[in-house]
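A quick aside before the break. I want you to see a complete sequence-to-structure record at least once, exactly as it would be stored in a machine-readable document. Don't worry about memorizing anything.
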Amino acid sequence: MTAAEPNQPSRLDELFEREPDRLSRLSIELAGLYFDWSKTHLDQALVAEFVSRAETAGFEKARHALFAGEIVNLSEGRPAIHVAERGSGAPEDVDLSAARHQRTRALVDAVEAGAFGDVTGVLHIGIGGSVLGPALLVDALGRRGSRLDVRFLSNIDGQAFDDAVSTLDPATTLVVAVSKTFTTAETLANMDAALDWLRGAGVADPYGRVIAVTASPDAATRAGIDETRILQFGEGVGGRYSLWSSVGISAALAFGWSGFEELLEGAAEVDRHFRFAEPQANMPLLAAFADRFYVERLGCQTRAVFAYDERLRLLPFYLQQLEMESNGKSVTATGKALEGPTAPITWGGVGTDAQHAVFQLLHQGTVTVPVEFVAVIEDDDSLDAEHHRQLLLNAFAQGSALMTGSASDDPQRSYPGNRPSTTILLDRLDPRTLGALIAFYEHRTFANAVLMGINPFDQFGVELGKQIARKLSESADHSDMDPSTRALIERAAL
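That is the input. The structure line, written in tokens, reads:
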């Protein structure tokens, strides 16, 4: 892996002069989305170099293994079959996923037909990938036309519980509990709190209001959930890649099964592009080339994503987990220490709010942060079109300003420019385009992992803190803990 180099690349505005076809080479229309990577430092020589690196890294073989349902998660001995959830994987995985989708659809139909009585709300309980993906879907697509109030609960903090149920009527609320193993401490504690909430409101059969979503149906049965209300997904579906599976039931309840199918279809379009496009025109791979360049050669430790659409406000949070939990590693897939950097810190916000908060550093700070703008051409709000026009023009202006900068005799008012940005434009925000957008980010994450030689499908880094918390909870003897932690426990009277 190439270490960060001190030399700066050519100026971006000069690259446009040197490469007249630059925009056409580094922009792609796909599945109702327009990707523009021309404001990055990927010139023809760099793209050729990275294409060669992808070949050396075995990109084609790794991509084939992903879609063929082969073992790609070496540390856990599993395939990664989330692509099968949208019909793009090995035939046997696709068939099994389709059967599970039919069971999920049957349950959605039963809810809509009144099998659970009058349902006005859903309390979706999970943590990490069990909640971030569905929450993004519902917040983006379930704002209009949904008869259900879908709320999400992940934090074990009681304040989070109070906030989640504040608008729900326990007599007409369904609880959707999502846990791959159905042993996740936070999720089970919140499910128990939800059951108590139902009991306290006089619900005669609180367990009858719970739908369990898990890869371990036996564990859900032991927890008291009837098998008729258990939806299963495969062991090879990682949490942060699971929204396409039965984990997405709350989204399907919010905007309908037909919308959920459109979500899968949009993702499948990007799957086909990623599988068959040539490397130099493969958008997720090109994006990974840029990511690797900025991390490894310019030493960029962060990447910022700004959604210029309120409906996509949760996208940066979703990408934080997808990218940092997948690629925040320090060893290769075979356990060897890496010599260079892996994933940068993903962060971001919503435009135009962010312009008045963090863009000062992006334009004039001493660190280079690659910026990503995500915007939607067609508006869907109640105001006149001028509001949306100004929103889009702000996004485009920021990208231009980052690239070109502006010289001034007053150093306080001088902008260096030559700062990279990318733009993703959705024609409109609907299930198809959102599915395509999320699939693009998944494949970009995978492509980055292949270029680095790491496994993006395990996440052992999240376990140690949880193990220590469990130990502290189960024993009153904290004598083997460090002095600082002991003092904190004593101060909080725990």
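Two observations worth writing down. The radius of gyration is 24 Å. The longest helix spans residues 91-112. We'll return to this after the break.
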